[in-house]
Design a protein that fits this description.
This protein has about 525 residues and is of the alpha/beta class. Helices cover about 35% and strands about 20% of the residues. It has 15 helices and 18 strands. A ten-stranded mixed beta sheet has the order 14-17-16-15-13-7-12-11-8-18, with helices on both faces. The chain has a six-stranded parallel beta sheet with strand order 3-2-1-4-5-6, with helices on both faces. A two-stranded antiparallel sheet has the order 9-10. α10 packs parallel to α14. The termini are far apart. The structure holds 6-O-phosphono-beta-D-glucopyranose (BG6). The site of 6-O-phosphono-beta-D-glucopyranose (BG6) has 3 residues, from loops.
Amino acid sequence: MMVEPPQTEANPLRQALPRAQAPQPCAIVLFGATGDLAHRKLVPALYRLYHRGHLPTECAIVGFGRRDWSDDDLRKEYEASFPASEKGGDFKDVWPQFASRIVFTPGTFDDPGAFRALKAKLEELDRTHGTRGNRVFYMAVDPEFFRPIIDQLGEAELIHDWRQESPWSRVVVEKPFGHDLESARQLSRDVSRVLDEDQVYRIDHYLGKETVQNILALRFGNSIFEPLWNRRRVASIQITVAEEVGMPGNRGSYYDSAGAIRDMVQNHMLQLLCLVAMEPPVDLSADAVRSEKVKVLQALPRWTPEEVYRHVVRAQYSAGSIEGADVPGYRQEKGVAADSTTAPYVAMRLTLNNWRWAGVPIFLRTGKRLPKRATEIAIQFKKPPTQLFDVEHDGNSAGNQLVLRIQPNEGASLTFEAKIPGSRRRLQEVRMDFRYGTAFASPPPEAYERLLLDVMLGDPTLFTRTDEVENAWRFIGSILDAWDRPDAPPPVEYPAGSWGPQAADELIKRDGATWRRL
Ligand code: BG6
């Protein structure tokens, strides 16, 4: 029996997700259904969509995995790992309705029989759950399985012809898409044997964050910022993605082959940079936005190895303490080689080779085991041409700074100088602040909610196109090649729980700047 999803929120202004469009009936197949991503992010996001009434009524979730589980086993697993903080309210009534849509199909990715069984299961769901042949295949698996799964989907004729409007098939590919430029190109070629580009949704979950989408709203939905948004008015840009976590669970073994450069910079940080630096698109269609982003990636520097050593700092954390607890150094983490040169911290200074930004230093930094989790973008504006007032601080005034807080405390603030009341002409820095939580009366939804909904709606705007991925790899490739050379300086160290290595402070000091204290 089908149960109608509850319609819980009456006030549409509180809804950060679009209401106008409802996705068509579909089945969502999760490859890697027993893995961490499905448990921690995907299933909770699907539940929340269901709870808000955004999942189609005719919908099924198909877990595909190696275990010998029943539908009930999978439902219980997902329920047990659901965030405890969200299990209050009407959870105990709504969860069973949601869970009744979850089914499990056992199988391995190299077994054509398992994919034939999957096909039969999907056809059965078309009849029992009204999913009408529409399918989302979500690859929440290690990258080495992307190709075998796509091949099997093709072999089993599970992918519909892209030219037909319905039924449709869409494949969501998690990052990393390739390991370098060559492997990314090879993967694109392999994928294109089975899928059309329109059927491939390369996910970068940062693009699903409400605050990240707000970068475009702030820039192009207002008229006051854009005239200042260029090399004439901007002194520098800083993008920070700081994390407290180290290598939880079995993360170390994947991470040691990636490092911050592949895990964070190639995708999340370059995407943030694209949104900050791009030209206004002609409209907000997927291709218009993505074409402007590609131009930013094409303007990234082409560095020689010596330039990489000068402009990029890589570092590993040594043992230290976070919030009073002792934590091991990177090389002592489970799954990490004792002589690893992989860097969980990267800082770099770059400039973009285009008219808008030429000469403006852009600083990126990201690292694990930093003192706290914080992602922000800071636009530092130039100082006034003359100083008429006495400035009341230690010389480290931020001056005019626009800070976009991506997470946590989502929002934005603008700092400027104001006259301290009294007879003297003294100035002090003050701040105007916008907070999502207070302005919109609810916290922004999780990135995966928005992205899953967009896949079901067939809107690829927030997914990366193949030329974006390749241009990002081209830039990252020059850094990786330089680090691979025998004369490359090894990673430097920083104590866990500190704000990174001294070399990163020296890097930014060369431009007379300092990293923002977060
Ligand atoms: C993932 C990375 O893509 O993003 C992780 O693989 C990282 O290493 C995570 O911790 C950070 O995501 P968020 O949304 O918590 O900032």
